[in-house]
Write a structure and sequence with these properties.
Helices cover about 40% and strands about 20% of the residues. By secondary structure, it is α/β, with parallel strands linked by helices. It has a domain of about 190 residues: 3-Layer(aba) Sandwich (Rossmann fold). The strands form four sheets. It has a seven-stranded parallel sheet with strand order 5-2-1-9-10-13-14, with helices on both faces. A three-stranded antiparallel sheet has the order 7-6-8. Helix 1 packs across helix 13. The structure holds guanosine-5'-diphosphate (GDP) and calcium ion. Calcium ion binds next to helix 2.
Length: about 325
């Protein structure tokens, strides 16, 4: 079974980790959001790409889900002691990634080339692709009329400002990564991981070209909301601020035009009928991933569900 999976950061990476345990490298490709990328202390940071790669390399911090395990913070502390910026946390090991990425970008390599080199060094066998080699920057327009860079909103301001709408600067001129389109064309099913639909998945889907190729394939999405709540981050808060009650149904509705199958939590069982009314095939199960075992169990269920969907369409 060949899967092309779309992912953001921490939520998406958990399911990708499970899928990577079950599928060989030629049966799983991962297409990652880079709308969160930004510059900090002169360095090019790609938070979601790093989270996915560190997770697949088993190098991720198991408590936060982002950053490196067994990290040390000498440089962060020294920068803080010099009154430098400290709102974005970069440990020493993580810093090496950003320094080298910046250096290689300045040498003229593309983000996808650099990601492939890093993956080789980290022993990540499954292909991980940035959604595009062109820059797309998520900007949060707030109810107060401010325009905030995504990390400024997400980390510095801890998602407190009320969202009015999102803008993906550069999206019209960005092109899907050709290898990512090839992976979609070669796959049996496209899977949307449980990532934030607004800021982790939309930037991918809104690059001209992705939806057109995804439409040719069955698409399965896993809900990032359980009981109307996000497990981490602002997904539920954003739904509410944009005037939509956060729920599994709201997530399904977000992807409705391209969705074949939807996986959501037992807690939200009562939404089944409403979701099936759109002729979406549903799987109600436990979608909470507290540990590695949960990731592998959910990944197995996702693959079995994809088989069912393929059999139905044959
Ligand atoms: P970020 O870029 O690091 O914010 O990560 P993502 O967009 O990939 O993931 C954030 C989303 O993951 C949030 O909406 C969470 O609710 C969701 N999430 C986190 N852990 C889990 C989990 O164990 N199961 C499910 N279904 N969703 C999760
Ligand atoms: Ca992110």
């Amino acid at each position: 079974m060949k899967i092309a999976a779309l992912a953001g950061g921490v939520g998406g990476a958990k399911l990708i980790h499970g899928l990577a345990k079950l599928l060989p490298p030629d049966e799983l490709s991962v297409i990652v959001n880079t709308g969160d990328d930004f510059e900090y202390l002169g360095l090019n940071i790609s938070p979601d790409l790093d989270t996915v790669c560190y997770t697949l390399a088993e190098l991720a911090n198991p408590v936060t889900g982002w950053g490196r395990k067994d990290e040390c913070w000498t440089i962060y502390q020294e920068i803080a002691a010099l009154d430098g910026p400290k709102w974005f946390h970069i440990g020493d090991k993580d810093l090496a990634t950003h320094i080298l990425r910046t250096y290689k970008l300045n040498q003229g390599l593309t983000l996808s080339e650099i990601t492939a080199e890093f993956c080789r060094c980290w022993g990540v066998k499954h292909p991980v692709f940035p959604m595009s080699d062109q820059s797309v920057r998520t900007v949060v327009h707030t109810a107060e009329g401010e325009a905030l860079g995504f990390q400024e909103y997400f980390v510095h301001q801890a998602c407190e400002p009320v969202v009015e709408h999102f803008e993906f600067v550069g999206i019209e001129d960005a092109r899907p990564l050709p290898q990512a389109i090839n992976a979609i064309e070669a796959c049996d099913v496209v899977v949307i991981s449980p990532s934030n639909p607004w800021v982790s998945i939309d930037p991918i889907l809104k690059i001209p070209g992705y939806v057109e190729s995804i439409r040719e394939k069955p698409l399965v999405a896993v809900s990032p909301l359980i009981g109307g709540k996000a497990l981490k981050g602002p997904a539920a808060k954003i739904y509410a601020e944009l005037g939509v009650t956060p729920s599994a149904w709201a997530v399904a509705s977000h992807y409705k035009d391209i969705l074949t199958g939807f996986i959501f939590d037992e807690q939200d069982h009562h939404e089944l009928e409403k979701i099936e009314r759109w002729r979406i095939i549903a799987l109600v199960t436990d979608i909470l991933m507290k540990n590695d075992q949960d990731r592998f169990r959910l990944a197995e269920e996702v693959l079995r569900f994809c088989e069912t969907i393929l059999n139905r369409s044959r």
